Amino acid sequence: MEANPVSKDIHDPVTRARFAAIHIKGLCQVWELCSYIHCCRLGCQEGLGAKIIDVPPVYVGIWGITSAHQRPDRVAHVCRFFASYLVSRGTRYLWNSFSSNLRSTDVGVGQGSALSPVLSALYLAPVIWLFEWQAVHVGCNVLSYIDDSTLIQRKMLEDNLPPLHEAYKIMFSLFDVFGLVMEHNKSKLFHFTCQQDDANPLTVLDFEPFTAASPLKPKTFWRYLGFYFDWTLSFREHIRYYSTKAISTVRTMGMLGNLLQGLTPKQKRILYWACIVPIAMCRFCLWYNDFAKCKGHLQSLTKMQRCAALWIIGAFRTSPTGGCKALAGLIPIHLHLRKLASQAMY
């Protein structure tokens, strides 16, 4: 309710880089990630690469905002706007017809509040605007999701590190001006590359603990907004993680209920479609392509489906896979993916 009015183009208070804080539906970050994945794949075709620094999270709490508002360089009406939400607040407890006395709650907006992402977007919007203006010569793109920011540089692998180093310093100085503290030990480095060798250069950020003595080492895979990315965008790590999670869920279901404890095959099949399939197919639109060969991806998902079929009908491990799936009423995993892809809205 609060985000819709401020996301109109006539006001434009929040930069496009803070995509997920503007659109509450939660789908915009998927489209933004898909666009950057598309750019990375096009760059790989041209022999280029993309390197990403996952900027450490910054929690915008009441004390950080209050300390920042005490700085003389902050605009007065901006301070009054945040103060109207964060100070001079009170609450009372109701139980049936009983009402307690008014109690002071000058603690700001809680982290789990629905208003917290909106205030975070409004508060950090000047940081993103200033970064895009000051770092225009660096050529880095920035993405921001509530308190999680990402710096992206698309050049040759050996030319990516100096611009990212400078962009990181600019981001740190802007956060410091706004009274925010970056947790440098949570910074992550990752790069997309089409090279087949093991070239993975280290990065010096000039901030503890990633100095020249102990530079930042790139990750072999990168988790961002629930996605697992690898260097070549094959999404093997993503599928391995969620298929393993689905298999663990199947085995947990076996401990919670089986044929001896009153669950019929029909009930277990309902549990499979309601609880296990959404985990295994999580974000499948990002990696599934009906025209591409996905045998490696389907192998782990087929293993998960076999475990589910054995649990549904209560068969032995040596039972044939095809017969178990037929008795359990489970269609092959590649046909199920094709059905989901035909029903998805791209």
Automatic annotation (TrEMBL):
PROSITE patterns according to UniProt: RT_POL
What keywords tag this UniProt record? Membrane, Transmembrane, Transmembrane helix
Q: Which domain of life is it from?
A: Eukaryota
Q: Which Pfam families match?
A: RVT_1
Which residues are in the Reverse transcriptase domain? 1-229
Transmembrane annotation, as ranges? 270-288
Question: InterPro entries this protein is in?
Answer: RT_dom (IPR000477)
Tell me which PANTHER family the record gives: ENDONUCLEASE_EXONUCLEASE_PHOSPHATASE DOMAIN-CONTAINING PROTEIN-RELATED (PTHR33481:SF1), REVERSE TRANSCRIPTASE (PTHR33481)
What is the name attached to this protein's record?
A: Reverse transcriptase domain-containing protein
Give the organism, scientific name.
Leucocoprinus birnbaumii
